[in-house]
Design brief:
Chain lengths: 335, 335, 335, 335, 335, 335
């Protein structure tokens, strides 16, 4: 396949108590490596697309392990080895009415020491035609926001398609800027956006009337960000920590398409569900560029399956996702 | 906080096969230390109240481990080291239509060798203002029933508020007395009682007409036990071993208050759910003495969260419980 | 009890990633020994019936372990030690919309080297009065189909009651014959059959009109296979990999009996659910020969409980199954 | 093989923290079922001899599991289901200078409720030609000592060969008798004895001069117990909890034979080492009745291999033990 | 006992791959909480002495867990809840010629944000008579070095005995000062010191002639630091990652006492061995103030046993250590 | 680095019981992917050399997982997806005098279906300068022996340096040819050989006088196989399953160089020790082409460290191996 994708972001060590234990009762932690853009990269590579992942890690065993994980998926890591530590997040699985809980310990990571000029974007983007980033990176520091912008400008200049996941986490924006002071300058480079109407004002700086339907909101976004070709959103319903419904929608500038809704009765791991959707929609739009409904169904089936898989990364294959789109759910053992 | 609580009871070793295995297929057992009153003690200590736990353990590693567990929660154990063994119960987790199963092996435990005169209640109760016990202790032997009575009389004399959980388990009453020959003499000392209308005759010796509504039954209890100020009950609905609904009610002599109902779709561990409620209502009545509804909502949210936590003891914090009372269930990851 | 049962089939090593992990992320596999007829044998032995299991295993630790498992249930294995390997299947637990997955690696197993004349059926059947087999065995090779026939002819001659589970798995029929070229010759020896209307044409060679109700289909089967006395079927409803409803029906030549329906909200392991039913109906018809409804209720309660038990084999006891038939589901801990 | 062996004794649940953890830091316990005579029974069955094991267990899952374990080895358990609990011992693995530690919790077990007249020895001994018991059983109660005597008298009358392991554990003799008040009456029935010179006075009541060499001591034993044909002893050298040397000797009334000495540099589990030796010497004397040296070498190689095996029971096969006797130690992987 | 001890230092989360795995192959990490002074505190509390531990932790589950661990030992934590993270170190167990490996990730921890004036030493030291610190704390920042000095001056003024472990780790001294620019000012307050002759110049600023015997070096130390009453040292011999010899010496100003030497043939966990010794010598000098040899033997037996125990903290009891001093090593199972 | 290496061979799934359990007592198996040449490939890639690995795997999750493992090390797998199964070997860790045990289940694997003409050697060898194979491959089938020959002829023609590990396992040569009927034709293409004098006649067809010293034997080999430039051998001493000494020698046609000897007191996993040596000597001869002693010391230090690492593959890094060569063994924790 001639599509070649570059993603850019931080990779973290995730530490999770096993068997639904709480952090305060853990005597061990299951370890995974991943985070937003790395999860997208690994999933796209699992789908069979060639993927580079640009990041920074420390010169120690944790950095090395994070790269081994990426390589095991066939992702090609483009790494700056610098700084002192791999960022960490502790994740406690929730159950029923007890919410899952993330405790971040990612400050002062190797990735957070990256600055403009440290990455040779021109070489990295050679032969690539898609660039993906998320709102996590510019939330971490002004330097990373600048670096993001640098990447986007080069990617635009070199003609890559650009996608972003807004991924708005208010707690991460700690360096004195609000999301909507930084993100608009970056989102203007995007062709594809994953976000929700709640993020209209806070992230994109686009005022929203509470009564506006989603199609109106997304149409407003496209006015402000004219490069946008598709806007996608996911929706959780009737959710507790063990089960929820999930569906998604896509606005292509003309129509708001709605996906099938899945009831997920037994969540194994919801971390990375949005990243699974993101990888799904990128794969979908590349594979069925004329069939937005199919692309959307693929993406929502991907995120549905992710909820059944431990760790941050969606291990569902193209065939498994297509089978679910075609109606072959979990009711029968596949022999 | 000036409230100081004393609880009294046995602490057991619980052995549970991991991963929903049955006892007959286990090659290992997860171990926990706990039991009715110990669970209440640990939960109250986790809520920030100063708690003493009065018990007896053998002079071996199992006894020591049970005390370490209590100390890890900040509970102050007042221990008589005597006897030969720590009591055990094996607990097999159920699933769907397979019930959880308890196999007791608690006879001849150190705790069961306690007798009147062995515990210096006056010293222990000094500076305390609340005493909690449960119907488990007097079910084990006449000596323990007598010791219970001794404690209750001293506590009454010294002006402590007294609470009890009826905790009626017919199989435990093996020493020739029925529950309703022993319990009334003890319950007359109580200000707060956790029990269900089913226990009216069998435990409290108060005849019940099947047609009586709960408020009528509880009003009858208050006539027989005039010291009672509040009676609380929990209710399970649509239950199997993996899911149930839960709610609770409180009779304060005037009104039967009803709590919100929670649907627990994925039970991690239901052992100690009643103890979590008991700790919750004690904390609630101490914290919001004028707001019985809030106390009740706090207690039922506490028991709801307990179902999501492995082991006997509720690890939910005051903030987590209040968040659930305020409507923040498990639908979102707490970041 | 004077009933003595002989079962015949292959025993496999099952390798399953723990904790719902996928095969591609496993760093260990939980191991179980079992397969269709072995599961029936072990369950019947657990019910208290004397059972022989006829099979072949290699002369190595895996063969030995599979026999130890059978013996641990009290099954008496009649074994031919021959061939080179114990067959394997990898089983990945599904969750919600992700189906469970079986990867077979059972070709060239010791069992597959069995041929006519290698087993002394006359000695084995002495004192026995029931013979059970399944459609797995004749699917594996012409030699095994022939061996099956040999066994059935001897069993018929010696007057045993004969039961079969059609167990139709299209992927296994690889040696050039279709199921309905082989199975009719074998099924004609059966008194009791477990199968579904879908298998009418493909397995039994009995044409079926899509509009026919089940009783009509089964009545047709009895015409073609006049020895049949009872035909039983199980039905899954509203199924995903984590939950489903289950019920069953029995056609005794006169009436189509329907069982109670169970909702299984949390499946622990669905492998062997059919075998648990098979063992249940054999036990039921032996125990309550005049009460087909009771036999059917016993069998469906058995399969319901199997879904809550890890591994291939139903560990539910007669008392536990009877309790569920009597309405005592998982809503209460059994103390 | 025409030899049929009966063993008699208690079977316990052993609970051991995994991975060399101490009991006080365990959050789980590995579980095994075994104890002196049960270990001998299982090992003999693994060697291919038909073995019955006479015991008592409670009517619960723990009792059932202990029997399943025995059956998995092919042992035929002759069981009285009575009493309330399966005895337990906690075993903490030692390491280097930290000794392994046993915490007993075996009082009031089902086995301890056995009395004379409860076991039908005549039926059990029919067709058997060897009876094995150990000094553990008579140490537990006067009733069990009496029952032991009853068994020995019937076995003697019926012409069985009788073996015993003195297994002297001072802490177990708690019912008011000393070992040497009880054991002589029992040992007089024995043909084969496993014991050490240290036990001469305390167990057998035979005074020993510290300067006496082992052959003199054993010759004295044979004078007092004229039925004895062989006395065997094991010797540990340079021992810490992780490594030791081991050898053994056999006095056949004429000569003191000495075995090869093994250096065990890495002990996996030393529990049951004596039982492995006992099973080895029984097998050895049955198999090579004229070659006492070979029997002894077999027994010491058996105990050597036991140290490399987790749990109470020796899983070494006849071929593995013979290979070690022939010099094939652990230096090469067996492919 | 009237001795009351205060220790001061950081507590870290330790993450170790299980089963001798390397960090790069771990899929989980065993977790422990501990570090130099915390280990001393917990061990002294296990010995039965009342101990306070002064530290700082973040307001999250990791901080809370570290305190629970301390409380479980009976240690009373005096905590300032501040800062953002609990420091971490990854520890990979070595084996044979592969060294154990520590990867620090402790910068920017809560403890590292402590400064002079933040701790109320006067209140903390009230009723205490011993203060223990180590060279780790002043190595972390100038602020912590100042805080150390503050503590030492108050302790000196209030008449406490003061002990220190030099604990020299060159990699930790990163803030621009060398150890021997900071430590002398602190060590002058000490009565008891654990250190090695290698640290003479680099830590204490006392020049050392390579040919000087240990007694000469220590005598020189006492000249420079006249408050010192005892100097203790440990010695490893013939070491690889799995085994070593260990002994210790004590200089009391008059004589260089030498301990027994232990051969540790199978190291379970060597982390915290020095801290175990430190706790041992503190306990020893308090318990046998006149018998320095006994105190030294106690301390070296304590460190010997620590090598057999997983985690940072010595779980050996006073009785176990005394038994080893008396010659009862691991050669026999303690029943 | 301009060296590019191609290796060729089978990759297997290894299943090992955890914690030194025997296969017959395992309830789970730890899984690893590896085998002779794959282990060499992964180790060389870990050393920083670019490596391709040529193999065949089935189109299922096991095949995919084996490739992920290789990719995680940076190895580039050149794979033919064909056939039905991934070969398996069960490995039971030994201990002390109990030997480790391999049970092969590798027949009919995907790799065994490879034949001449299926692999495009010319494309694969482009830009490569080293080819490595082992005697395992030609032992499996005549087709694989032919394919080996094909590869060697192309490699020779394209000027690659060629190395081989004789890896003689008599049990694998099952297709009717003896090793010395096949191997000479292949070894004649080699520049570097790993083998022992024991294999002289049986593998290489070079008669050996028992009295010949190693240098004489190797000199004879070079006469028969004139392309050989270096012959290397490893030597185990004083071996049991838990500990051994290890050293190596190298004959370069002029001199027999001897390495340092290591005592490995605590073996974690000896599988792959020879492969670790092979990777070490390849790396050594590439890195220090003029310093054979250094190359040899590197290789023997590599194999020494492998014994401390779980799984088939040496995870030691260049720096760790060099440190051991320089004398920095496991005696100190690396901080």
């Amino acid at each position: 396949m001639s599509n070649r994708i570059v993603t850019f972001g931080e990779i973290l060590l995730r530490l999770s108590p096993p068997s639904h234990l709480r952090i305060t009762q853990a005597t061990s932690f299951d370890s995974y490596y991943g985070c937003a853009e790395a999860n997208v990269a690994a999933s796209l590579s699992k789908f069979g697309l060639p993927v580079k992942f640009v990041t920074a890690v420390p010169d120690n065993e944790l950095g090395e392990s994070s790269l081994s994980m990426l390589r095991s998926f066939g992702v090609n890591p483009i790494v700056s080895v610098q700084g002192k530590r791999l960022g960490i997040y502790y994740f406690e699985q929730g159950a029923s009415e007890r919410p899952g809980k993330v405790v971040y310990d990612r400050e002062d990571s190797s990735f957070s020491t990256l600055k403009m000029g440290m990455i040779d974007w021109r070489t990295i983007f050679k032969k690539a035609n898609w660039f993906h980033w998320s709102g996590i990176t510019p939330s971490l520091s002004q330097d990373l926001a600048n670096l993001c912008k640098e990447a986007l400008e080069v990617a635009t200049e070199m003609g890559l398609t650009i996608s972003a996941d807004l991924n708005y986490r208010p707690k991460l924006w700690q360096y004195g800027k609000k999301a909507n002071e930084i993100m608009p300058d970056l989102v203007q480079h995007c062709d594809l956006l994953l976000g929700g109407v709640d993020e209209s004002e806070s992230v994109l700086g686009v005022p929203r009337n509470e009564l506006d339907t989603d199609d109106i909101v997304f149409a407003n976004w496209m006015k402000v960000y004219p490069r946008l070709k598709n806007i996608v959103s996911t929706h959780r319903m009737d959710a507790n920590a063990s089960s929820n419904g999930i569906s998604a929608s896509l606005w292509n500038g003309k129509k708001l398409l709605h996906s099938r809704k899945y009831n997920i009765s037994h969540i194994i791991d919801r971390i990375g569900a949005g990243d699974a959707f993101m990888a799904g929609i990128i794969y979908g739009l590349i594979t069925w560029p004329e069939d937005h409904q199919m692309a959307l169904e693929y993406a929502v089936a991907a995120t549905c399956l992710k909820h059944s898989i431990s760790g941050d990364i969606n291990l569902a294959t193209v065939n498994e996702i297509k089978a679910l789109v075609s109606g072959a759910g979990g009711g029968r053992v596949s022999r």
